[in-house]
Structure to design on (266 residues):
């Protein structure tokens, strides 16, 4: 027994006092949980501009009435789109139906992204002068009048991911994702348009978005948002699009405009 005690004594002697102190600290009451801003796997703040390299005819101009190609509309959805009347929308002051949450990221627009507070990310658009608020943590379901940008609940998703996509690009090269994404689910929207020409989504629609930040070999910074619109009233399946934004050095090109829809080109 004496021999065993002699062996154990040097082991305890080798344990630094800080180890016991740390053990005591673990017993202390936990501090406040980290905020969404502290947990962010990447930074989305700043000024960004949409880069339109596809779907030009539906994004940069107002499509012709009845042009709903690639949107999985059901019969009711097509009937509603065919009844679109721009003059009536203007007269009723509802041109912002094309700038609702389910369509705003497809607009040719600039964004200003800031933190409204440590758990609320704010996105402002110069096209239509819309403001989106992404709420992290628990949120209260809105009971008042529905707003164009709805009610958005956001969560960070982190993942272990090396820089590059495995195609021979060096560290810091093309496709360097920042190890996670931002997921945003938006509900409580009023009925709006998926496109400027009256392609509808209903107030029952659910919008799910995934934001990823990346950079290019030329040093430019980008984020891509994948948008999924589920609407049991007007769509036969989810409507999925992907839109890219490039970061700008400042807000010198920021140009707020109201919700205005140009007449379609014939």
């Amino acid at each position: 027994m004496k021999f065993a005690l002699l062996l154990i004594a040097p082991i305890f002697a080798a344990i630094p006092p800080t180890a016991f102190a740390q053990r005591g600290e673990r017993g202390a009451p936990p501090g406040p949980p980290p905020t969404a801003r502290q947990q962010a796997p990447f930074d989305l703040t700043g000024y960004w501009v949409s880069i339109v390299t596809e779907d030009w005819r539906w994004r940069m101009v107002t499509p012709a009435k009845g042009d709903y190609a690639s949107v999985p509309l059901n019969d009711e959805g097509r009937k509603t789109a065919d009844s679109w009347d721009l003059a009536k929308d203007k007269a009723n002051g509802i041109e912002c139906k094309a700038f609702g949450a389910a369509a705003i990221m497809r607009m040719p627009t600039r964004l200003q992204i800031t933190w409204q507070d440590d758990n609320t990310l704010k996105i402002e658009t110069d096209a239509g002068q819309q403001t989106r608020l992404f709420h992290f943590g628990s949120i209260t379901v809105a009971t008042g009048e529905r707003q164009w940008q709805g009610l958005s609940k956001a969560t960070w998703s982190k993942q272990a991911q090396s820089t590059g996509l495995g195609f021979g690009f060096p560290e810091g090269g093309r496709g360097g994702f920042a190890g996670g994404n931002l997921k945003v689910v938006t509900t409580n929207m009023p009925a709006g348009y998926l496109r400027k020409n009256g392609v509808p989504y209903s107030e029952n629609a659910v919008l799910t978005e995934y934001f990823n930040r990346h950079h290019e070999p030329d040093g430019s910074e980008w984020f891509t948002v994948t948008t999924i619109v589920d609407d049991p009233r007007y769509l036969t399946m989810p409507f999925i699009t992907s839109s890219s934004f490039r970061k700008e050095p400042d807000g010198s090109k920021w140009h707020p405009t109201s919700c205005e829809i140009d007449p379609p080109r014939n």
Notes: The two ends are 99 Å apart (CA to CA). The chain has one domain: 46-248. The mean pLDDT is 86. The first strand starts at residue 46 and ends at 51.
